[in-house]
Amino acid sequence: MMFGNPLTLLTLGPIVAGFAFMLLAWATPPSKRAEVSQYIRILIFAFALLLFALSTLMFLESYSGISWTQIGLNNYVYDNCANADVAIEAGGCSLVNGFGVSWHVGVDGLSFPMVWLTTLLIPVSMLVEWDAKKGPQFHSLILMMEGALIGVFVSLDLFVFYTFWELTLIPMFFLILLWGGDDRKYAAQKFFIYTFTASVLMLLGILVMYYYTHVPVWEGNMTGRAFDVTLMASSSSTLGTSFLGGFGMQKAVFLLLLVGFAAKMPSVPVHTWLPDAHVQAPTAGSMLLAGVMLKMGAYGFIRLAVGLLPAALVHFQVLIVILGMVSLVYGAIVCLGQTNLKRMVAYSSVSHMGLVFLGIATMQPLGIAGAIFMMLAHGIISPHLFAVCGAFKHHYHTLEIGSMRGIAKHSPWLSGHMMTAWMGSLGLPLMAGFVAEVAIMIAFWMAFGWWVILPALTLIITAAYYLWSMQRTIFEGGEDGELPESLHGEDPVDITWHENAGMFVLAALAVILGIMPFIFFDMISAFSGEFVTEVILDALNGVKP
Amino acid sequence: MIPPMYLASLGAILFCIGLMGVFTNKHGIIVLMCVELMLNAVNLNFVAGALHYGDVTGWVFASIAIAIAAAEVAVGLAIFLAVFSSRETINLDEVTLLKH
Amino acid sequence: MSALTLISDPNTAMALLPEFTLVVGVVLMIVVPNLGNGTFRLPIPNTNIRLPYFFGGERFSFNSNPRVPGIISVTTLLFSTSLALWSQMSTPIADSNVWCITTAGEAFASCEGMVDASLLQIDGFSRLLEIVFYGALMLCGVAMWSRMPATPRFMIHAQVLAGRREDERIQKLLDNRRQVDFHLMLLMVALGMSVVALASDLFVMFIGLELASLSLYVLVAFMKENEEAPEAGMKYFILGSVASAVGLYGISLLYLWNGNLQISDLASSWQAMETIDPLALTGIAFLLVTIGFKVSAAPFHLAAPDAYTGASSPVAGVLSTASKAMGFVVLLRVLVTITMPESGEAFWVPIMGLLAAVTMTWGNFGALGSENPKRMLAYSSVAHAGYLLAAVTALGLNVAREGDHVVSELIVAAMLFHLTVLVLFKLGSFLVFSMLESEGKGSKLEDLYGLAKREPLLATALFVFMLALAGVPPLSGFLSKLLLVSGIVDATVHSTMNFDDGIIATLKSIHWVFYLALLVFLNSALSLFYYLRVGWVMFFEEPPTKKRLVYAPFLRITIMLALVGTLAFGIGPLADHLLTLVSNAAETFFA
Q1: Closest approach of chain B CAs to the CA of C580, in angstroms?
Q2: Which residues contact C59 (CB under 8 A, 6 or more apart)?
Q3: Does any domain span residue B99?
C-alpha cells in the first residue's frame, strides 16, 4: 500500500536515485571521470523525464481516469491513507505510531499543478545548465531537490511535510554554496538562516496544532495525537471557532504559520534573502528557487494557514492585503532602481508573490483560483527569466543592464527569449501571467471595489521596468552598439542548443497556458470554488455576524 | 551507653567541619582528608541509627561506608600522584591547564 | 550462605544473568592476560620438579596481543546487552518479568510480602537502563581498542635510558597491561551502573553509584601522557567525592529518620508524614547534591566541561550518556518513588523548575562561547540535562490520569527514550572526535576544519549527530524532544486553553511549568547555532592536511551503526519498537 503509490514513487524515487547517482559519480576513478560523467548526466536527465512523463500521465484523464475537477474538498487522489482516522489506527500507513506520524500522501486541485510544475522544471533546468562543472553531482543534487519539493506538495502529514520542507534547504544550500557566484558564502548563509529561523517558528505553530489534534488513543499511540492534515481539517470544520481551543489560539497559530510561509514566498519585510540568494545562485538553482521553492510558501499558506484556520484569515484579511500590496508595490519600485538584471528579476518575484497574497485575501473563488494560477504561471515564466539572465551571465559575463547594448544583433535567439519572458512576466495578453493577473484583479475589484486601482497602477510600473531594461539591453545601440567590456574582446555568441531547448519549452508553455488556461484553470477553480464555499464562507458567517 | 542523639550531633559537627575544610583549603591532600571527615560523620550517623532502632543493618552500612572511604582514598591518591608527576604540585589553584 | 544461594538459586541466576556475565568477564580479564608458561617448583628439598602453573612467566602470543583485553570486555558487554535485550523482548508484557532479589539471595517473582528485605529489583525499567549502560560502555570499549598509546611517557624515558626502547615484545606487553587496566575499569563501571539500575535499597544504590564513580574517576585520568587528563581526573574526583560524601550523609540522615533504607519503605513513611520532617527533608536535599553532580545540573556542573575536555573522547562520551542516565535513575527513584505525594504537587517542583531553567540556559550559553568542540559538547550535555530536569519538574505536578492517557508514564517514557537515543548520537559524535584524537587533535575547532574533504563519511556522520543533538526532524533527537515537550504540555495545559480572555490573562492562567516547555523550544533553537557551526567548519573550511584519519575499521563500522540508529530511531518501524519498549519500562516504573 505504502510503496505502490505513484506519489510515493515521485517523492522517494528522485531522492534515492539522486543519492545513487551521487555515489556513482563519487566512486568513479578520476581517470574515467570525464567519460562516465557524460553517461551519468544522460541517465539523470532520462530519470527526470521519466518522472515528468509519470506526472503527465497522471494528469491525462483519458489515461489515469481521474476527473480532476471533481475531487471534492478534503478528498485527495492517489490517497494512500483515505479515512485517515481508521487507516492510521489499522497501521496501514503509520511511520511512527507512537507519535501519530504517518506516511500520508495525496494530491488535489491545489497541489497537483505544483507537482506537475516541479517535474517539468527539473529536466528543463538540467537542460539549461547542461554543462555545469562537476555535472553529475550538480544534476544529482537537483534530482534530490525534486524529491524533497514534491514531498512538500504531496504529504498530508505535517511531520513529513516539515521534514521535506527542511530537506529542500539542503540541496539548495549546496547548489548556492558550491556552484554560486563570488559572494556565495554570504548568500548561502543568509538564505539558510532566514528560511531556517522562519521555519522554526512555523514548527512551533505546527506543534500547537499537533497538541490540539486529539485522536482516539489507539494501541501504541503514546501522545494521543496525530500530525495528519485531513484529521486536523475535519476537526477544524466540525469545531469551527473552538478549534485549537478557541479563536485566540487560532490567531496566534495563524501568525506563526504566516511568518514561516511569508519568509519563503517571500513577502516584505522578510524578503531580503531572496535577491542575494538569486544573484549568487547558479542558473538552475535560481530557476528552481523562483519556480518552485517560492511556491512552497504560497502552497503552505493556502493549505495550512487558510485551509485549517479560515476564521483567522477573515480576521487578518487587512493584514494580508497590506502585506501583499506592500510586496507588490515595493518590489516593483525597487525593480525600477536596479542595475543588475538578476536582482531586478528577483525583486519582480517579490512583486508577483505579493499578487498571490492579494488573490488569497480577496476570499473570492476567482481570486484564490487566480492566486493558484499565478503560482503556476510564475512558476513557468520566472524560470524563463532566470534562464535568460543565466545565459547573459554565461555568454556575456555580466549582468549589468547598462553595460550591454544591442545584443539582439549578436544573439538573436537570446534576445527572442528575453522578449518572450519579459513580455510574459509583465502580463501580456495571451500569455499565462495575464490570465492570473486578470483573475486576481477582477476578484480584488469584487472584494474591495476601487482599491483595485492600486495594484493595477503597479502593473504599469512593472511594464515600465521590464520594457526599459529590455530596451536598453537588446535594442538600444542598434547598428553601432558596443559590446560589454566583460567580453574582453571575444566574439559574442548566441545561446547553445540545450539552453535554447529548455527555454523554448518554457516559452511555449507560457503561451499555451495563456491561450488555453482551462487546461489547469478548470481543476484549480473547481478546487477554489469548493474551498471558498465550504471553508471560508463558514468562517465568514461564523465570525462576522 | 552514649545516647544516639549525641553520636548524631557529633556527626553533624564533624560533617560541617569537613565541608568547611573542603571549601577553604586548596591543597589536594587536605581536601581529601576533609572528605574523609565527612564520611566519618556518616559512619557516626549509621551507628547512631543502629543503636536507636536496634537494627543490625546500620552496623553493616557503617562498615561498608568505611570500605568505600578507603577505596576513595586509594583512587584519589593515585590520581594526585599522576598529577604530581607531571605538574610537581597538587595545589588546586595551580592546576589550571583546562581553564579556557 | 547468601553468596551460595545467589549462585545456586536458578531464578536468581537467570534474573541476574547479565550481571553474572559481567563478573565472568572481569575474571577472564584478570586471568587471560596473565596466562603464561610460568612453572611452580614443588617444595621438596633437593629436587627441582617444576609443575606448569600457567600464571606469569613468558606470556603466550595470543594473550600478549594488546587487543585481547578490549576483545574480552566488548564481547562481555555485547553478551550482557543481548541477554538484557533478550529478557526484555522475550516477555512482551512487562509485569510478568519482575524479580525481587532478597538479602538471602533468593529471587521472588513479586516484590510483595517477602520475609527478607529486598535488595535488587529487576523489571522492564531496570532492564532497559541496563541496555543503555552496557550499550554506551560497549561503544566506548570499541573506540578504545585501537587507540591506547603504547606506553606512558616516563616509561618511554626509562626505556630510552636503558637502551631497550626498540624491544617490540615489551612494548606490546606494556600496551596490553594498560588495556587491561582500562577495560577492567570499564567492566567495573558496567557493574556499578547495573547495581544502580536494579537497586531497591538506597544504600545498595549508593554502593553501585560509588563503584561506577570511582572507576570513572580513574578512566577520566587514564591518559597520563597527556597533561590534561590527570588534571581533569583530579577536578572531577574532588568535586565528585565531595558531592558523594554529602549525598551519603543525606542517606545516613534518612536512615536516622526511617530506620531502614528500603526505597518502598521510605516511600510509605514519606506518605505517612503529615508535615514534612526536617530530618528527612535535609536528607533528600543532600542526596540531590550528589544527583545534581551526576547529571551535571547547574550549579554542580562546573567540573563537567573540564572533565569532558581532559578525558579521552570515548570516556567523555560515557560521562555524557551512561553516567548521566545513571544520575537520572537515582533522581527518579528518590524524587518520584520516595517523595511523590498521593495527590497534589510535590514539594520540589519549584526547585527543580528553577534548576532546569538555569541548567539548560547556562549550558547553551556556555556551548555558544566555547571554541573547543569537546567542551562545546560538554555544555550541550549540561543543556540536555536541563531539558530532562524540566520533564522531571512536570512529573512533580503529579497530574491525574486523563482518560487512557497517563501523563506521568508519558514523561518517564520520554526521558527514557531521550537517554537511550542520546547514546547513539552523543556518544557517536564523541567517537568521531576519538578518531581525531588518535592523531593528537580534536581539542580545537580548527582541528575539524575541512574534515569533509578528508573523511566525507565521518564528517557526514558527525553532521547528522549534530543535527540530532539540535533536534532537527526526522532524526531521533527531534522525536525525543517532542516527547519531552508533549509530556510537559500535557501536564500543564488542558485542552480548554485559549487566548480569548486576552493574551496577558491567559498567559497568567497557565501553570508556570508550561514555560519550561517554551524554554526548551527556545533553547533548542539557540543551540542550532553552535551545532551548525561544527557542520560549517567541516564542510567549508580548508583542511590543514589531506591525510586520512587512522584506519580503525571496527570503530568506523560502529560510528556508521550509530548513524543508522540515529536515523532509524527517528522515523519508521524501529522507532515504534523503541517507543513500545520505553513505554513498557515507564509502566513498570510506576507499577
Answers
A1: 39
A2: C33, C34, C35, C36, C173, C176
A3: no
Owner of C-alpha cell 553520636: B7
Q: Calculate mean pLDDT across residues C137-157.
A: 69
Asked if residues C136 and C144 have their Cβ atoms less than 8 Å apart, the reply is no
Sole residue written with cell 497557565? C510
Three-class DSSP category at C198: helix
> Is residue A106 a part of any domain in this protein?
yes
Inspect the interface and report whether the beta carbons of B42 and C249 lie closer than 8 Å: yes
Asked if the structure places residue A242 within a domain, the reply is yes
CA distance linking residue C206 with residue C199, whole number of Å: 9
CB–CB of C576/A98 below 8 Å? yes
Cβ-based contacts of B77 with chain C (< 8 Å):
none
Half-sphere exposure for C234 (CA within 13 Å, toward CB): 32
> What's the Cα-to-Cα distance from A500 to each of A291, A414, A469, A506, A508, rounded to whole Å?
18, 8, 21, 10, 12
Taking CA atoms, what residue in C is nearest to A219? C580
Range of the domain at A121: 6-543
| Closest listed residue to residue C309, CA positions, set C242, C218, C376 | C376
ipTM of the complex: 0.96
Task: Provide the residue ranges of all domains of chain C, joining segments of one domain with +.
Answer: 2-260+278-590
Mutation pick from C241, C251, C257 vs chain B, by most beta carbons of B within 10 Å, is C241
Q: Determine the Cα–Cα distance for residues A269 and A266; give it in Å rounded to an integer.
A: 8
Tell me whether residue A1 is in a domain: no
* Alpha-carbon span C206 to C200, nearest angstrom: 11
Of C403, C489, C503, the CB nearest to A217: C403
Domain that holds residue B47: 4-87
- The size of the A-C interface in CB pairs under 8 A is 88
Per-residue model confidence as pLDDT tens digits over C242-265: 999 999 999 999 999 988 888 888
Contacts of C117 in chain B (CB under 8 A): 57
- Give per-10-residue mean pLDDT for chain A (545 aa): 73 90 84 83 90 88 77 80 67 76 86 91 89 83 92 91 90 84 82 85 89 69 80 81 78 90 87 86 88 91 89 88 91 86 88 90 89 91 90 82 76 86 86 88 88 87 86 70 66 80 89 87 87 81 55
| pLDDT at C65 exceeding the cut of 80 | no
CA nearest B89 in C: which residue? Answer: C231
Name every chain A residue with its beta carbon within 8 A of the beta carbon of C506.
Answer: 248
Distance CA A512, CA A516 (A): 6
How close A176 gets to chain C, by Cα (Å)?
A: 13
B14 pLDDT more than 90: yes
Q: What is the CATH number of the domain that holds B74?
A: 1.10.287.3510
Q: Is the pLDDT of residue C64 over 80?
A: no
Indicate the pTM of the whole model.
0.88
Q: Which helix (H) or strand (E) holds C187?
A: helix C168-198
Residues in C touching A222 (Cβ below 8 Å): 410, 413, 483, 579, 583
Q: Per the domain annotation, does A21 fall within a domain?
A: yes
Give how many domains chain B has, as a whole number.
Answer: 1
Residue C181 near residue C158 (C-beta atoms within 8 A): no
Query: Are A249 and C498 in contact (CB < 8 Å)?
Result: yes
- Whether B93 is covered by a domain: the verdict is no
Count the domains in chain A.
1
- Rounded-to-integer distance, Cα C317 and Cα C180, Å: 20
With CA atoms as reference, the chain C residue closest to A220 would be C580
In this model, does residue C2 exceed pLDDT 60? no
Which residue, among C132, C63, C68, C145, has the nearest Cα to C554 in the 3D structure? C145
C499 closest CB neighbour out of A159, A204, A249: A249
CA distances from C127 to C97, C135, C262 (A): 10, 12, 20
Neighbours of chain A (3+ CB pairs under 8 A): C
Contact: A162, C473; criterion CB under 8 Å: yes
